[in-house]
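Possible regression after last week's pipeline update?

I re-ran a chain I had predicted before the update to compare outputs. Posting the input and the new output here so someone can diff against the archived version. Not blocking, just want to make sure nothing changed silently.
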Amino acid sequence: MALAEAVNAFETFGPAHLAAMALTVLAAAALPLWARRARSVKLTRRIGLAIAAALLANEAVYYATGLATLPLIEFARRHLPVHVCGAAVYLTAWTLWRRGRRAYEVAYFWGLGGTLQAILTPNLVVDFPSRGFFQFFITHSGIVVGVVFATLALRLRPGRGAVLRVFLISNLYMAGVAGIDWLLGANYMFLPAGREVALLLPPLALVHPDAGAGRAGHPGGAVPAVRPRPGPGAPPSRHRPRGGPPARLMIAPLPADKVKDRGPTSSPGPPGPVGPRPVPVVETIDPLRVSW
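New output (post-update):
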């Protein structure tokens, strides 16, 4: 099984990936539509509980497999439910079971803002029909389907001030996860080492072909230093280049044979021959770093 998974590498936007995304869209549209047309409170609740049960059952299998195949410390470094999507599983399940408004608000923004990115650009190694492929898309697609179902069928909505609340919760949560990463030497939320697959957000994916490489490319996903050369007649720029330290303006000294010593004098006297002016040289050291 391990050999088959190693050979069957995941292909982003390949046939299996496109099929998984299509099924996600279909389920997210069909289940709320079914519940709303039936106009049955009991059916709506059963569909919501079925989505929650599928999410939790998939997580149970995932953790059982990890505990059975990995040492405990390695399991703790890789499989704790502290990624945004891992936590969103439980928030979504709680929302569908108890209709918790605060849990729904966090699941709404994390699911549609974060998990949707994971579906579009999965950080996945194995492809269909491996176990990891099914576990990944049941988790991530289930979160999106559950959030959409809670919004359209259960008619939940983010309350006033939800954006600020979720913003503060997310940053506090990230600080806690950073502490876990430091203690365990882990990479939860991709804070220490970045992601192996670039996201589709323009600042992250459109900078450099190696932007999503992380440790496999340049260290920390960094792009080598860029030294722009201004065109002829272009004035030297004193502005700070985007994404890097301020430009350093240095004056190149004149060669010794071009400097005329006039000696000490109390008056300026007639102007002498004018040599070439010092040439401003702008040296910009601008490592375009990709933040995750």
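Follow-up from reviewer: compared with the archived run. The chain has nine helices and two strands. Marking as no regression found.
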